[in-house]
Amino acid sequence: MKVQQLDLDLDRFKLPNINQLFSQHYYRRNKTKSEIETLLGIFFKRDLQAVDQYPLNIYFEWWNRHKRIDPDNQAGAGQKVILDALQGCGIIAGDGCKHISGLYHSFYYDKQKESLLRIRLVEGQYEEENSGQGSLFAGRSLGAGNGFGLGLG
Could you read off the pLDDT of 94-120 as tens digits, one per residue? Predict the structure, then answer.
């Protein structure tokens, strides 16, 4: 099992939320998405290796200073752009069910911490250490501390 991790500074690198992305005209939205994917691809190629074993589990940890952004709005557009960028730069072979078995999002809020997105790619089966992770109520998520997790897989 190979695990890769990348942190994106959300204070410097502004990912659009789904409302911002879809409020744009179709052509402008595609241009914005393409520009973001190109920039992400540079970071991904520099810091990540191509995935060898499938299926893949992808974990997104969203760290924010405030609760003004709805989690579904932030994760929806962010996940789409990130998966397309990972595929576009050759880190993953595809973003369908054949290649991805789980997408997991956790949201944390801390006024003292910088806003960041931690992306973790876990190759192969990841069940021996995290049995039950696919369940909405499993793991260190709902109601634990100042964050909550959504098991989407």
Answer: 999 999 999 999 999 998 888 999 999
Using CB atoms within 10 A of its CB, is residue 46 exposed (0-12), middle (13-18) or buried (19+)?
Answer: exposed
| CB-based contact 71:107 (threshold 8 Å) | yes
φ and ψ of 72, to 5 deg: -70, -35
The whole-model pTM stands at: 0.77
- CA quadruple 143, 19, 11, 93: dihedral positive or negative? positive
C-alpha span between 35 and 47 (Å, rounded): 19
Q: For residue 88, count CB atoms less than 10 angstroms from its CB and return exposed for 0-12, middle for 13-18, buried for 19 or more.
A: middle
By DSSP bridging, strand 56-64 and strand 3-9 are unpaired
